[in-house]
Amino acid sequence: MIKLQYLPVATCIWFLSTFIITYIIAVLRKDVPYFLPYISEAGTFPPESCVFGQLMNLGALIMLFGICVRYCQVKHDIKTKNIRLHPKWNTVSLKLGAVGSLGISMVGNFQESNMLGIHLVGAIMAIGVSSAYLLLQTKISYAYLYARTRSIPKWLFYLRLLLSVPLIPMLIAVLILGGLALAKFTGNSKRWWTEEDGGYTYRIASALLEWILAIMIFLYVYTFKNEMGCIEFEGVCFKINDRKQENDTTENNGKQTNRIKPFSTEKPHTH
Protein backbone atom coordinates (compact mmCIF):
# COMPACT_ATOMS: atom_id res chain seq x y z
CA MET A 1 0.00 0.00 0.00
CA ILE A 2 1.54 3.29 -1.13
CA LYS A 3 0.23 6.70 -0.14
CA LEU A 4 0.11 9.10 -3.08
CA GLN A 5 0.36 12.31 -1.09
CA TYR A 6 3.86 12.96 -2.37
CA LEU A 7 3.24 12.06 -6.01
CA PRO A 8 2.69 15.73 -7.02
CA VAL A 9 5.80 16.71 -5.04
CA ALA A 10 7.87 14.01 -6.75
CA THR A 11 6.57 15.11 -10.17
CA CYS A 12 7.51 18.72 -9.52
CA ILE A 13 10.98 17.86 -8.21
CA TRP A 14 11.60 15.35 -11.02
CA PHE A 15 11.04 17.81 -13.86
CA LEU A 16 12.78 20.78 -12.27
CA SER A 17 15.76 18.53 -11.47
CA THR A 18 15.76 17.29 -15.08
CA PHE A 19 15.99 20.85 -16.40
CA ILE A 20 18.72 21.83 -13.94
CA ILE A 21 20.82 18.69 -14.47
CA THR A 22 20.81 18.96 -18.27
CA TYR A 23 21.51 22.70 -18.05
CA ILE A 24 24.55 22.12 -15.81
CA ILE A 25 25.93 19.39 -18.09
CA ALA A 26 25.42 21.51 -21.21
CA VAL A 27 27.07 24.59 -19.68
CA LEU A 28 30.04 22.62 -18.32
CA ARG A 29 30.58 21.07 -21.75
CA LYS A 30 30.20 24.51 -23.36
CA ASP A 31 27.36 23.29 -25.57
CA VAL A 32 25.14 26.26 -24.65
CA PRO A 33 25.74 29.72 -23.17
CA TYR A 34 25.26 29.90 -19.42
CA PHE A 35 22.80 32.81 -19.61
CA LEU A 36 19.21 31.73 -20.29
CA PRO A 37 19.25 29.06 -22.99
CA TYR A 38 15.90 27.53 -23.84
CA ILE A 39 15.10 24.51 -21.66
CA SER A 40 15.22 22.00 -24.51
CA GLU A 41 18.25 23.77 -26.04
CA ALA A 42 20.28 22.54 -23.07
CA GLY A 43 19.26 18.99 -23.98
CA THR A 44 20.12 19.15 -27.67
CA PHE A 45 23.61 17.64 -27.86
CA PRO A 46 24.94 14.35 -26.42
CA PRO A 47 25.53 13.31 -23.73
CA GLU A 48 23.06 15.75 -22.13
CA SER A 49 20.48 14.95 -24.83
CA CYS A 50 20.54 11.30 -23.70
CA VAL A 51 20.03 12.30 -20.07
CA PHE A 52 17.32 14.80 -21.02
CA GLY A 53 15.44 12.30 -23.19
CA GLN A 54 15.53 9.51 -20.60
CA LEU A 55 14.43 11.73 -17.72
CA MET A 56 11.68 13.37 -19.79
CA ASN A 57 10.31 9.97 -20.83
CA LEU A 58 10.17 8.77 -17.23
CA GLY A 59 8.73 12.11 -16.17
CA ALA A 60 5.99 11.82 -18.79
CA LEU A 61 4.99 8.45 -17.31
CA ILE A 62 4.97 9.87 -13.78
CA MET A 63 2.88 12.80 -14.97
CA LEU A 64 0.42 10.54 -16.78
CA PHE A 65 0.05 8.35 -13.70
CA GLY A 66 -0.77 11.41 -11.61
CA ILE A 67 -3.29 12.57 -14.20
CA CYS A 68 -5.02 9.18 -14.11
CA VAL A 69 -5.11 9.25 -10.30
CA ARG A 70 -6.68 12.71 -10.37
CA TYR A 71 -9.23 11.53 -12.94
CA CYS A 72 -10.23 8.59 -10.73
CA GLN A 73 -10.47 10.84 -7.70
CA VAL A 74 -12.78 13.31 -9.44
CA LYS A 75 -14.80 10.48 -10.97
CA HIS A 76 -15.34 9.00 -7.50
CA ASP A 77 -16.42 12.35 -6.06
CA ILE A 78 -18.86 12.93 -8.92
CA LYS A 79 -20.33 9.44 -8.53
CA THR A 80 -20.74 9.79 -4.76
CA LYS A 81 -22.14 13.32 -5.21
CA ASN A 82 -19.37 14.80 -3.13
CA ILE A 83 -19.05 17.51 -5.79
CA ARG A 84 -21.43 18.89 -8.40
CA LEU A 85 -19.69 18.63 -11.76
CA HIS A 86 -20.61 17.27 -15.17
CA PRO A 87 -18.50 14.15 -15.90
CA LYS A 88 -17.54 15.47 -19.34
CA TRP A 89 -15.15 17.99 -17.78
CA ASN A 90 -13.29 15.21 -16.04
CA THR A 91 -13.14 13.12 -19.23
CA VAL A 92 -11.88 16.02 -21.32
CA SER A 93 -9.24 16.83 -18.72
CA LEU A 94 -7.97 13.23 -18.83
CA LYS A 95 -7.59 13.40 -22.61
CA LEU A 96 -5.83 16.76 -22.47
CA GLY A 97 -3.48 15.48 -19.79
CA ALA A 98 -2.62 12.40 -21.86
CA VAL A 99 -1.82 14.55 -24.91
CA GLY A 100 0.31 16.86 -22.77
CA SER A 101 2.25 13.89 -21.37
CA LEU A 102 2.89 12.62 -24.90
CA GLY A 103 4.19 16.08 -25.81
CA ILE A 104 6.66 15.94 -22.91
CA SER A 105 8.05 12.68 -24.27
CA MET A 106 8.27 14.12 -27.80
CA VAL A 107 10.23 17.14 -26.58
CA GLY A 108 12.74 14.81 -24.93
CA ASN A 109 13.11 12.46 -27.91
CA PHE A 110 13.10 14.85 -30.88
CA GLN A 111 15.84 17.44 -30.41
CA GLU A 112 15.45 20.82 -32.09
CA SER A 113 18.76 20.36 -33.94
CA ASN A 114 17.54 17.10 -35.53
CA MET A 115 13.78 17.39 -36.09
CA LEU A 116 12.73 20.95 -35.32
CA GLY A 117 9.17 20.59 -36.64
CA ILE A 118 8.28 17.59 -34.47
CA HIS A 119 10.09 19.17 -31.53
CA LEU A 120 7.95 22.32 -31.79
CA VAL A 121 4.76 20.26 -32.09
CA GLY A 122 5.78 18.37 -28.96
CA ALA A 123 6.56 21.64 -27.15
CA ILE A 124 3.13 23.06 -28.00
CA MET A 125 1.53 19.82 -26.78
CA ALA A 126 3.64 19.75 -23.63
CA ILE A 127 3.06 23.39 -22.69
CA GLY A 128 -0.04 24.47 -24.60
CA VAL A 129 -2.22 21.39 -24.09
CA SER A 130 -0.96 20.97 -20.53
CA SER A 131 -1.93 24.59 -19.89
CA ALA A 132 -5.44 23.83 -21.13
CA TYR A 133 -5.47 20.82 -18.80
CA LEU A 134 -4.56 23.00 -15.84
CA LEU A 135 -7.24 25.54 -16.76
CA LEU A 136 -9.77 22.73 -16.72
CA GLN A 137 -8.42 21.52 -13.39
CA THR A 138 -9.00 25.03 -12.06
CA LYS A 139 -12.64 24.73 -13.10
CA ILE A 140 -12.83 21.34 -11.38
CA SER A 141 -11.18 22.87 -8.30
CA TYR A 142 -14.03 25.38 -8.12
CA ALA A 143 -16.42 22.46 -7.59
CA TYR A 144 -14.30 21.34 -4.65
CA LEU A 145 -14.88 24.66 -2.90
CA TYR A 146 -18.37 23.39 -2.14
CA ALA A 147 -17.59 19.69 -1.68
CA ARG A 148 -19.41 17.91 1.14
CA THR A 149 -16.12 16.39 2.31
CA ARG A 150 -12.48 17.17 1.45
CA SER A 151 -13.30 20.68 0.26
CA ILE A 152 -10.39 22.96 -0.65
CA PRO A 153 -9.77 26.44 0.81
CA LYS A 154 -10.52 29.49 -1.31
CA TRP A 155 -6.91 30.61 -1.30
CA LEU A 156 -5.90 27.37 -3.04
CA PHE A 157 -8.49 27.87 -5.76
CA TYR A 158 -7.32 31.45 -6.35
CA LEU A 159 -3.69 30.32 -6.39
CA ARG A 160 -4.50 27.79 -9.12
CA LEU A 161 -6.43 30.45 -10.99
CA LEU A 162 -3.44 32.78 -10.77
CA LEU A 163 -1.05 30.08 -11.99
CA SER A 164 -3.20 28.71 -14.83
CA VAL A 165 -4.83 31.73 -16.50
CA PRO A 166 -1.57 33.39 -17.73
CA LEU A 167 -0.10 30.16 -19.15
CA ILE A 168 -1.53 30.20 -22.69
CA PRO A 169 -0.94 33.98 -23.20
CA MET A 170 2.62 33.46 -21.98
CA LEU A 171 3.12 30.58 -24.43
CA ILE A 172 1.90 32.81 -27.27
CA ALA A 173 4.35 35.48 -26.10
CA VAL A 174 7.19 32.91 -26.11
CA LEU A 175 6.41 31.98 -29.72
CA ILE A 176 6.02 35.59 -30.90
CA LEU A 177 9.21 36.78 -29.21
CA GLY A 178 11.10 33.76 -30.56
CA GLY A 179 9.83 34.52 -34.07
CA LEU A 180 10.86 38.17 -33.80
CA ALA A 181 14.30 37.13 -32.58
CA LEU A 182 14.79 34.82 -35.57
CA ALA A 183 13.60 37.51 -37.97
CA LYS A 184 16.19 39.97 -36.67
CA PHE A 185 19.04 37.46 -36.34
CA THR A 186 22.06 38.34 -38.50
CA GLY A 187 24.78 36.19 -36.90
CA ASN A 188 26.29 32.83 -37.83
CA SER A 189 25.44 30.63 -34.84
CA LYS A 190 22.04 30.66 -33.15
CA ARG A 191 23.51 28.56 -30.37
CA TRP A 192 25.98 31.30 -29.45
CA TRP A 193 23.63 34.23 -29.94
CA THR A 194 25.16 37.57 -28.89
CA GLU A 195 23.89 41.14 -28.68
CA GLU A 196 25.69 41.95 -31.94
CA ASP A 197 23.71 39.30 -33.83
CA GLY A 198 20.38 41.15 -33.65
CA GLY A 199 17.18 40.07 -31.93
CA TYR A 200 19.10 39.15 -28.79
CA THR A 201 16.72 40.92 -26.40
CA TYR A 202 13.72 39.14 -27.94
CA ARG A 203 15.46 35.80 -27.60
CA ILE A 204 16.35 36.33 -23.94
CA ALA A 205 12.79 37.44 -23.18
CA SER A 206 11.40 34.37 -24.96
CA ALA A 207 13.70 31.96 -23.10
CA LEU A 208 12.98 33.64 -19.75
CA LEU A 209 9.23 33.30 -20.27
CA GLU A 210 9.67 29.62 -21.16
CA TRP A 211 11.48 28.96 -17.86
CA ILE A 212 8.80 30.86 -15.92
CA LEU A 213 6.10 28.87 -17.75
CA ALA A 214 7.68 25.56 -16.77
CA ILE A 215 8.07 26.62 -13.14
CA MET A 216 4.44 27.79 -12.96
CA ILE A 217 3.15 24.51 -14.43
CA PHE A 218 4.99 22.35 -11.92
CA LEU A 219 4.15 24.63 -9.01
CA TYR A 220 0.52 24.07 -9.99
CA VAL A 221 1.09 20.30 -9.97
CA TYR A 222 2.61 20.64 -6.48
CA THR A 223 -0.65 22.13 -5.16
CA PHE A 224 -2.38 18.72 -5.42
CA LYS A 225 -0.25 17.38 -2.55
CA ASN A 226 -2.90 17.65 0.16
CA GLU A 227 -5.79 16.50 -2.03
CA MET A 228 -4.00 13.26 -2.85
CA GLY A 229 -3.26 12.63 0.82
CA CYS A 230 -6.41 10.51 1.12
CA ILE A 231 -5.48 8.22 -1.81
CA GLU A 232 -3.59 4.95 -1.42
CA PHE A 233 -2.23 2.74 -4.21
CA GLU A 234 -2.58 -0.99 -3.58
CA GLY A 235 -1.27 -2.25 -6.91
CA VAL A 236 -2.83 -3.44 -10.13
CA CYS A 237 -4.95 -6.59 -10.05
CA PHE A 238 -4.63 -9.13 -12.88
CA LYS A 239 -7.24 -11.79 -13.60
CA ILE A 240 -5.98 -15.20 -14.74
CA ASN A 241 -8.33 -17.78 -16.28
CA ASP A 242 -6.95 -21.26 -15.63
CA ARG A 243 -9.45 -22.85 -17.98
CA LYS A 244 -10.75 -21.60 -21.25
CA GLN A 245 -14.47 -21.57 -21.60
CA GLU A 246 -15.18 -24.20 -24.18
CA ASN A 247 -18.92 -24.22 -24.18
CA ASP A 248 -20.82 -20.95 -24.34
CA THR A 249 -23.95 -22.67 -23.06
CA THR A 250 -22.39 -23.48 -19.68
CA GLU A 251 -22.87 -20.35 -17.64
CA ASN A 252 -19.22 -20.16 -16.56
CA ASN A 253 -19.72 -23.24 -14.31
CA GLY A 254 -16.37 -24.71 -15.26
CA LYS A 255 -14.45 -21.49 -15.15
CA GLN A 256 -11.64 -21.08 -12.64
CA THR A 257 -10.46 -17.57 -11.85
CA ASN A 258 -7.56 -16.32 -9.80
CA ARG A 259 -6.81 -12.70 -8.99
CA ILE A 260 -3.18 -11.88 -8.36
CA LYS A 261 -1.75 -8.57 -7.29
CA PRO A 262 1.76 -7.83 -8.59
CA PHE A 263 4.53 -8.12 -6.02
CA SER A 264 2.14 -9.85 -3.63
CA THR A 265 3.41 -12.72 -1.49
CA GLU A 266 -0.04 -14.31 -1.34
CA LYS A 267 -0.64 -17.46 -3.32
CA PRO A 268 -3.65 -17.48 -5.65
CA HIS A 269 -6.65 -19.44 -4.44
CA THR A 270 -7.86 -22.30 -6.56
CA HIS A 271 -11.43 -23.47 -6.73
Automatic annotation (TrEMBL):
Q: Keywords, A to Z?
A: Membrane, Transmembrane, Transmembrane helix
CWH43-like N-terminal domain: residues covered? 5-226
Region annotation (Disordered) ranges: 246-271
Q: Name one GO cellular component term.
A: endomembrane system
- What are the Polar residues biased-composition ranges? 250-259
Q: Does the keyword Transmembrane helix apply?
A: yes
Please list every transmembrane segment annotated in the UniProt record, as residue ranges.
7-28, 51-72, 92-110, 116-136, 157-182, 202-222
Cellular localization per UniProt = Endomembrane system
Q: Which Pfam families match?
A: Frag1
Membrane topology per record: Multi-pass membrane protein
Q: Which residues form a coiled coil?
A: none
- Top-level taxon of the source organism: Eukaryota
Q: What is its main location?
A: membrane
UniProt lists the family membership as follows: Belongs to the DRAM/TMEM150 family.
What's this protein's name? CWH43-like N-terminal domain-containing protein
Organism encoding this protein? Photinus pyralis (Common eastern firefly)
